[in-house]
Task: structure prediction
Amino acid sequence: MNFSGIIAACLAGAAALKAVYDVATPSVVPLLPPGAKPDGGFASLCVKCGKCIEACPYQALHAAGAEAGAFAGAPCIDAREQACRLCADFPCIKACPTGALEDVASKADVRMGVAVINEETCLSFQGMRCEVCYRVCPLIDEAITIDYRKREGDSLHALFAPIIDEERCVGCGLCVERCVVSDPAPAIRIKPMNEE
Ligand code: SF4
Ligand code: SF4
Ligand code: SF4
Result:
């Protein structure tokens, strides 16, 4: 093989490696259903059969798109569209034939992700009364509380700031679904458990 042949082979190899890397590394990390096994267990067990998607009475689950890399085709949740309702009997988990979704004892034991508030856009952090995320949370006063701090440098006005307890938030996404801020994005998002 001449020099240009070697260069061409190297470039082809690099392109192939990049393609593999792009598939394995999603540009959008999906929010997986409740009970998804942690530490790569879900990815190795889910056969993308869609039985959990069919079983969800709220249509909260859909198949992830190509942007999800290796998770493409696996069940995921777009919390802004339709959050998980943490059904008492978890039909999604019951429908899973492979154990990719494993039993959880109660809704408080679910660990899909953690809510993260953008203090720059959250109305409550700007001194307005909102607290919608707080009121819709199925784990109100556990996963989310209101901190009645005084506004910095303002002795007259209180700040009613929603605060997430990272240990107790289950990542259901109801707060995201209902956030009244939308431009350019909701003031709260879910950081999925499988996100770095
Ligand atoms: S817990 Fe209920 S709402 Fe949530 S994904 Fe499972 S079936 Fe759907
Ligand atoms: S039922 Fe289980 S194996 Fe099938 S798509 Fe859902 S999580 Fe994957
Ligand atoms: S994701 Fe939001 S609504 Fe769900 S438990 Fe966490 S704070 Fe509450």
